[in-house]
Design brief:
Layout (H helix, E strand, L loop, with lengths): L10 E5 L3 H11 L4 E5 L2 H11 L3 E7 L7 H11 L4 E6 L4 H9 L5 E4 L4 H50 L6 H14 L8 H6 L6 H18 L12 E2 L1 H14 L3 E3 L7 E2 L2 H18 L4 E5 L6 E8 L22 H14 L3 E7 L2 E9 L12 H13 L1
Helix pairs in contact: 5-6, 6-11, 8-11, 9-10, 10-11
Length: 393
């Protein structure tokens, strides 16, 4: 009775410049493995670009026109490290194969001419190793995701507590809630900090998380010192001054600006507003200095509306306070955005940030003071909704 062979869904890529050898390899092994063949290093690279997600093993001949096998496998180790690398060579190339094994370029070498039983065993072991590594990586990713979600929830809680303690800033709770919604709930920027999360143990580094939160609080409060100006919402600022201040900032930074002939006169602390606009422009320039736009006012709003946009975003390394390990904060981008949200709320304005693909848009609304309707408290339901969104996200 013949035993049914269950093939792995993944593929073996065999690379050899001799057509007969490729056919011989595929014919002898097709009942045990899914096979792809390439006749050169260039063909192999194209196959890898197209199918690398489904390729488990690459086995290549050493001597080929246009590039040798070890060179291809070295490229594989750098670009596709999860793929198992094997080399097949004639006896005369044995020293190069041994060097490749010693240098860590390959999992194993197989000498020509092949013993097919041995070849099947070697390839089966390589396939098994790939699937074990794949399973390990999946478990590792799940572990990392859990750690990151736990940390994200912890940091949201810390920001809520920070908002409760900033008594000298108006509407701090509402502004912090909006920042959390825009940057922690609605925005899912990918993090490259996987290796650091792998080694980070939440239970053993609570103190580091506490210091991380305290450091963020200090940086934010330092930015908010300008709010100690006691003239909050006391002066009527006409449209000429608002447009003049924004144009000054735009011209200084070579930013394109569009504005109407007239906008609504509003009560506002112009010192804080000008500071906020400059801060926001600085953060957008940090994302991409060549593609920032400013538009003043919208006809359907009573008050001031300021649109800022940056395209082709380039996120600074390790800036996302919700995604990085606490010892990796290298850019204050998110910290500065939080301060901006708080200062805009302080002058009874509101900011919305929308991030889609590589475009970030900020809309600032400053209403007439009697039209302001921003609430100032987190309800229990709102906090619970935010935490659930993060935990389920």
């Amino acid at each position: 009775m013949n035993e049914t062979i269950i093939k792995s869904p993944y593929f073996i890529l065999f690379v050899d410049d001799e057509e007969k050898t490729r056919k011989y390899f595929a014919k002898g092994l097709k009942s045990h493995f899914n096979i792809i063949t390439s006749g050169s290093v260039d063909e192999a690279q194209k196959a890898l670009e197209e199918h690398h997600d489904n390729i488990a093993v690459v086995i290549t001949d050493q001597r080929m026109p246009g590039g040798n096998g070890v060179k291809l496998l070295r490229l594989l180790r750098e670009k596709y490290p999860t793929i198992i690398r094997m080399l097949t060579t004639a006896y005369s190339d044995l020293s190069e194969a041994i060097d490749a094994v010693n240098d860590g370029e390959i999992f194993r070498y197989i000498q020509k001419p092949w013993d097919y039983d041995l070849l099947k065993t070697e390839l089966a072991q390589a396939m098994e190793l790939f699937e074990l590594k794949l399973e390990r990586d999946q478990l590792l990713n799940e572990k990392i995701m859990i750690k990151r979600k736990m940390s994200k929830i912890s940091r949201i809680s810390s920001l809520i507590l920070i908002a409760q303690t900033i008594n000298f800033v108006n509407l701090a709770n509402a502004s912090t809630k909006k920042f959390i919604q825009d940057f922690a709930v609605n925005h899912n920027e990918k993090s490259d900090d996987v290796q650091n999360w792998d080694s980070f143990e939440m239970a053993n580094e609570d103190a580091l998380e506490t210091l991380f939160a305290a450091n963020i609080a200090k940086k934010v409060i330092d930015k908010l010192q300008i709010s100690n100006d006691n003239k909050i919402l006391s002066e009527v600022v006409n449209n000429d001054k608002i447009i003049s201040d924004i144009k000054e900032i735009a011209d200084k930074n070579n930013i394109k600006i569009t504005s109407p002939n007239k906008i609504q006169d509003i009560k506002i602390n112009s010192k804080i507003f000008k500071f906020v606009v400059q801060e926001l422009v600085d953060q957008l320039l940090a994302l991409n200095s060549n593609s920032v736009k400013i538009n003043i006012n919208k006809e359907d709003y009573k008050g001031l509306v300021l649109d800022l946009e940056v395209s082709n975003i380039k996120w600074p390394m390790n800036s996302n306070i919700f995604l990085i390990t606490p010892h990796r904060l290298e850019s204050d981008l998110f910290v500065n955005f939080l301060a901006i949200y708080l200062l805009i709320g302080h002058i009874e304005g509101q900011i919305d940030t929308n991030i889609t693909n590589d475009v970030l848009k900020c809309v600032i609304k400053i209403p007439k003071s009697e039209d302001s309707d921003i609430g100032d408290q987190f309800s229990c339901d709102e906090v619970e909704d935010i935490m659930l969104s993060v935990a389920m996200g």
